[in-house]
Amino acid sequence: MYHLLKGLHAHLTRKDEFSVIIIGLDNAGKTTLLEKIKSLYNNVPGLPPDKIGPTVGQNIGKITLPSTILQFWDLGGQRDIRTIWERYYDECHAVAYVVDADDRERLDEGWSVFDNVLSSPKILDVPLLLLANKQDSPSSLSVQEIRESYENWWQRRKAADRSQDDGDVQNGDREERMASLDVMGVSALEGTGIRDAVNWLFIRVQNSRRNTDAQSDL
Ligand SMILES: Nc1nc2c(ncn2[C@@H]2O[C@H](COP(=O)(O)OP(=O)(O)OP(=O)(O)O)[C@@H](O)[C@H]2O)c(=O)[nH]1
Ligand SMILES: [Mg+2]
C-alpha cells in the first residue's frame, strides 16, 4: 500500500522538464534576459546587468512552473560561437531568438542569422519565439517595425535568390513559418514583457508535448 501511494504521489507531483535555447546576435541581451527570468521566477536576484559580460559558451537557468520545469540555455552570440547552437537543436523543445531592437545597423546581420535558424531542419517543428528586446529604449523599433524589418529583409533576399534562379524549394517552408511567427516586445533590463514571453514558451512546449504524446498513442 505504501509503495502504491508513494508511486501515486510521485506520479501526481511529477514535473516534465523542457529545454529552451536562447539565441541571437552578441549584445542582443540574452544573458540579461536569462538573469531577469531567474530573478522573476526563482525569487533570488540574478546577476546585475553591470556584472554580465559577453558569453563564451553557455549559461543555464531553471525555473519551476505548474507541473513543468523550464531549463533555459543561453548561448553565446558572437560569430565564432554561433557554430555551437546547432549542437543544442536536437534536444531543445523551444527556441527564443532575441533581437536588439535598438540596433538598426545590425538588423540585417541578425535577420540573416535568424533565417539560418528558421530553416534548420532539426528545429523546423519546434516552437520559436522572436523577442524584440530593449523596448525600454525610446529609439527601439516596435514589434510591428521589427516584423516589417524582417519581411523587408526577406523580400530583398528573395529577389536576390530569384536572380540566381534558386532557393524556391525552401521558400515555401520558410514563408509558412514566417506567417505564423510570434514576435513579442520585451525589456530584459526592466523586466517588461518577460512573463508574457515565458507563458508563451510554457504553453507551447505543453502543447507540443501533447501532440507528441498523441502521435505516440496512435
Ligand atoms: N537598454 C537595454 N539594454 C539592454 C537590455 N538587455 C540587455 N541590454 C544591454 O545590452 C548589452 C548586452 O547584453 P548581454 O545580455 O550581455 O547580451 P548577450 O546577448 O548575452 O551577448 P553575448 O553573450 O555576447 O551573446 C549589455 O550592455 C546590457 O546591459 C534591455 O532590455 N534594454
Ligand atoms: Mg550573453
What does this structure look like?
With 218 residues, the protein is α/β, with parallel strands linked by helices. The chain has 7 helices and 6 strands. The protein has a single domain, classed as 3-Layer(aba) Sandwich (Rossmann fold), CATH 3.40.50.300. Helix 4 crosses helix 5 (143-164). The structure holds guanosine-5'-triphosphate and magnesium ion (MG). Guanosine-5'-triphosphate binds next to helix 2. The site of magnesium ion (MG) has 6 residues, from helix 2.
As laid out across the biggest beta sheet, the strand order is 2-3-1-4-5-6
Overall geometry comes to: globular
Total number of β-strand segments?
6
Strand fraction equals: 15-25%
Unique ligands:
guanosine-5'-triphosphate, magnesium ion
| Cα distance spanning the termini | 33 Å
The number of helices is 7
- Structural class by sheet pairing and helices: alpha/beta
In the CATH hierarchy, the architecture is 3-Layer(aba) Sandwich
**What does the radius of gyration come to?**
19 Å
CATH topology title? Rossmann fold
CATH-wise, what's the superfamily?
P-loop containing nucleotide triphosphate hydrolases
Binding site for Mg(2+): 31, 55
Family: Belongs to the small GTPase superfamily. Arf family.
Pfam families: Arf (PF00025)
Protein name: P-loop containing nucleoside triphosphate hydrolase protein
